[in-house]
Design goal:
The protein is an alpha/beta fold. It folds into 2 domains: 28-107 and 207-317, Periplasmic binding protein-like II (D-Maltodextrin-Binding Protein, domain 2), CATH 3.40.190.10; 112-200, Periplasmic binding protein-like II (D-Maltodextrin-Binding Protein, domain 2). The protein is 45% helix and 16% strand. The chain contains 14 helices and 10 strands. The strands form 3 sheets. Strands 2-1-3-10-4 form a 5-stranded mixed sheet, sandwiched between helices. Strands 8-5-9 form a 3-stranded antiparallel sheet. Strands 6-7 form a two-stranded parallel ribbon. Helix 2 (42-49) packs across helix 11 and helix 4 crosses helix 5. It is globular.
Amino acid sequence: MKNRQSVTFFFLILVTKLLIPSTGLSQEKLRVGVPLFPTVSYPVFIAQEKGFFEKNGLKAEIIRINSEPTTYQALISGDIDATSGAPTGLVQSNLQGVPVVSLGSWDNLVSYTMATREKIDDLSQLRGKKIGVNRLGGKSSLILRVMLEDAGLNPMKDVTLLQLGGSQERLAALIRGGIDAAPVDFAFEPKMKQLGFFLVAGKKTPFMNGPITAKVSSLQSNRPKWVRFVKSYLEATHYMVTNREGSMEVLRRIIGIEDKQTLDFTYEQMRARATVDLVPPDAAVENLIKMVGYVDKRASSIEKSKLADYSILKELAQGKTAPQKK
């Protein structure tokens, strides 16, 4: 009798689960590659920590990767599903015959400031100096080239470029005196001043700095997943510009800095830079192509339309005004 009651009980549980609809979306896994110093991927972390991915039926895993080439190798091989904040590989992958597209970009300005050991008034005064970059052909060196050319210098003749690694490695070399100057992420500006270094800003050049990128084949085979991803990213970007306290909590964790001045400065910079509808200006895309063209002449012939697919953003915007900054 007891066994019969147990069987009946479990049968009722099974029937109940089948008949009562689930109140939530099934959680689909998605892996996103971001840089080691991930301020350019800020909305990804907000979407993760503030529950936007989960709300939209995604179980996201954020993976920090040390270089853009490695990031795109992982994307192409399927080890990750999307990249965030890795712009030059978007162009280079398409030049190599691998169709990848940006689904939107929240940050569309050059993110570097030039830090120097000696006080200078203009970047043209770097003639004859040693400047540290991530790697020749990498994002920092390409952006640096634009900054130096704008100042009237020939980056290949008038300065010496040394390959050192990311922002943190360049900062360490600058502190040791191994280089005279380095482009550093704007988040380091307060720290550089505290350490006694000098800052020289270049022009505010439009540049698609924060694209979210996926393979065209994945977009075509599972579009609903990418709709949920873009929706989460859009909501996270809106949250970033409207909820300072909650966004600062996330920022503190992802950059590992407790200094209030640095945190306040970094947040306000990112808030001011944000493109809340995720659609970059044409000039930002054109400058990305131009920068890649410095190392691969084929870039000048690539069509901008091949680099982006904003159809999901357009779908999400139908019947709803894109969020605006307050």
